[in-house]
Amino acid sequence: MNIILQPKKQVSGEITIPPSKSHAQRVLACALISENQTIIHNLGASNDEVAALNIVKSSNRKVEEKADSIIISGKGDFQIPEGKVDFHESGLSSRMFTPILATSSQELELVGSGSLPTRPMDIFDELLPRLGVDFRSEKGKLPFKVQGPMQPKNIEIDGSLSSQFITGFIYGFCGSKSLENQQMKLINPKSVPYIELSLDVLKEFGVNLKIENNTIQFNGPYKFQPTEIYIEGDWSSASFFLVAAAILGELTFTNMNPNSCQADIKMLVAIEDFGAQVSWKGSELMVQKDQSKGFEFDATDCPDLFPPLAVLASFADGESRIRGVKRLFAKESDRAATIQSELGKLGANIRVEDDTMIIHPAGQPKSFQVDSCNDHRIAMACAIYGLKLDQAIEISNAEAVNKSFPSFYELLKSVIS
Which of 211, 259, 351, 397 has the fewest beta carbons under 10 Å from its own? Predict the structure, then answer.
């Protein structure tokens, strides 16, 4: 699908950001483990959330979909009657659910689609067999064959590629009936706020864990408690509209949590360093265009912010530097390259030196046609960037936004003039 976006000079109004898919997928994972009832309010409709919900639906858990909630219940251990789980294109679901599914004695086939089967997951080949799991992969990539039950032991996990693997093993340990007093040592952990979010969700289910000296101490087995959870607004999705407000006007966000554990809440730091006005009134956040200063930002723990940060920096008055580029190579695209190539077509002046992306004020566009490269965040970044140009842009493969933010274009059109 191609979409044409006309240039606009202002954004204004009130906006409700969709629910956090990071929060939602973690809640759904815990609901699969739980033998008690879970009530979820404000679940979103992104492809990633649908993929996680479908995993739960493929199990023997009972799923009731109501107008304002989803109720998940079931007694005893979960089972997957058809013996196959499809992650579709969801990186988080594949990394998080695989150790959970390894707690089952059932032989399971795990598959994915799109770019997911090309993404490295060697850590499962290394760790799962050490935990008593029969595990086979395609040279560290999907599809997988897995059969437990997992037998938790003291382990070390390299978190330098993604914190999502750590979340998966934390949840897998918590779901194991064999868990006792094991320790999990986190080596070189990245995106620690996302690990904290995973622990925050566990706390909602009555399981209290914490990270001390990069170590998590378990004292299981655990029994998950009945819970009712409201999924908060998504800071990853909000980041693009925060940038739009900072460079083009003023927006009020109505459903954001100022105390969120989501790593991407750090976007507010960049917005303020850029010179935008930021204010809170209860759960309402207002962002207003003011100054346009170059800034420095470390995105190592929140790499999903690179695309909106690159747009923001392109319209600063001076040089900006964003650290953490090495976190971009196992995404839906080689995101460092696609940020340079696609925003570069529109006039962005970006280069990469080692782990730092250096961005100078934008120049003249070379083209008004860009490609999302099937990466949802590239599509959204190009759309926001295009609002500042003097000519309409055309985005090919624009439907990539469905992965995380199906209503993105509709919501964007509602606040531009």
Answer: 259
